[in-house]
Amino acid sequence: MKKLMIFAFLFILFAIPAPAEQSFEDYINKQFGEFQNFKEERDREFTEFLKKQWKEFNAFKGIDPDPVPKPFKIPQAQPQTPKDIPDSPKVTKKEIPPPPELEPLEKIKPTEAIVEPGKTAETSEISFDFFGTKINVIFDKNISETFGMTVTNDKISKYWKKLSTADYRPLINQTKDIKKKLNLHDWGIYLLTREISTNIHKDRNSATLLRWYILSKLGYDTKIGFKNNKIYLLLPSQYTLYGITYFTIEETRYYAVDALFNRNTAKSLKTYEGKYEGADKFAFFRTENPKFRNYSSDKTINFNYSGEKYSFNLRYNQNYIGYYKFFPQTVLNAYLVSPPSPGFQSTVVKSLNRVIRGKSEIEAVNIILRFVQRAFEYKRDMEQFGFEKYLTPEETVFYPYSDCEDKAILFAYLVREILGLDVILLDYPGHVAAAVGFNKKINFGGKSIGYKGKRYYTADPTYVNATLGMVMPLVKDKDFKVIPLSN
Length: 487
Hints:
Blueprint: H1 2-15, H2 24-32, H3 41-50, E1 55-58, E2 107-108, E3 123-130, E4 133-140, H4 153-165, H5 169-182, H6 186-200, H7 204-217, E5 223-227, E6 230-236, E7 246-249, E8 252-255, H8 259-262, E9 268-271, E10 296-305, E11 308-317, H9 318-323, H10 334-337, H11 342-356, H12 361-375, E12 377-378, H13 381-384, H14 393-398, E13 401-402, H15 404-419, E14 422-428, E15 431-437, E16 448-451, E17 454-459, E18 481-484
Parallel strand pairs: 2-4, 12-13
Antiparallel strand pairs: 1-9, 3-4, 5-6, 6-8, 7-8, 10-11, 14-15, 14-18, 15-17, 16-17
Helix pairs in contact: 3-4, 6-7, 12-15
Pfam family, one: DUF553
InterPro entries: Transglutaminase-like_domain (IPR007562)
Organism: Flexistipes sinusarabici
């Protein structure tokens, strides 16, 4: 159909004689007009689409993963000698290579701007720090033109056209280059485009529109909506995001992700159905580390077990802490999919190896349980942050307090990483615990559950002094949902 339209246009074009005073080349350029300035036809079509396809959508309050509040104070179990099984397999030393020496990415140089024949490039450059890496970006000066104070869909359409007829390609290519060099997953791309757009534009609306444009060009499904002359970015996710206002558009939830930084959004927005061609949802995480520079700090961790006092020096990368500071609250599996920094992995494994080597697997699990129970002080997220926030294992070491799901995630990480045992999470109303599956059948009398043909023994990293097979009294009679971590 497109080919037929272009053929018809060319037929009409060449059927009309060019004025004598114009060269044939000048005449062609004039007839094509602004269409020739678009780099892609989909931009021209999307510009026209944005002029008319808008309507009002009401906001939905962010989904609460658990309406039952967490306890203010955690009960303590009576200290007891952990049970052991004589024929339980012994723990051997977990060998872990030292943290790899990442190539220092002190500066990522900008890509040269593409200059079209007969034109002079007018470019600007920005520089900013991105979690320890110096980023330099060159862009067409036309991209930095501000949007204006009044917001209408017609003005948004014209702004998309302005960006699409500017030389946006160097900016998009540089963003792709930074993504590759830093090994960023989708959350990193969102943060990167946020930094780029807010460094180019000081006003909020222009920065949001540029972020929308860059993400669309990178292949992400993203929308913008507006209310009372304020523009909001909307992103869909492959996984549920909790606590974030969303809008249901064509049976898809679009989250107002920028609210993670200012905690507010509109109760309704004007936005559009349909999407930019070739767009896909955000996944937000993946199983590889970003390649951030090592900005390490140490924290001393103390705990007691069976009358022995232990003191560990654990290392964390502050660039990772900053990276996950505003990470959206999502499914618990996500916090084990994205691994901690190499320095953290090395120090925590090395420290616990000294304590559990030669012990039975059951005793080793009990030592890790006591470590998480005693070394990290409990406090609810609402008291520490003012909102719900699930922590990665590295964040649990960094922040002064953690609650039940944070401790369960750290415990699961340690048992899997050091002992190589399978762990599931038990999601109770207002509480999260864990259960451990052993590689060999054991004759153990503690509380256990069957899951997918395997026996798992309960382990509660929040219930202080509790050992393997015990359940916190607050939830022992409650139903729970199993959250597998193998995927």
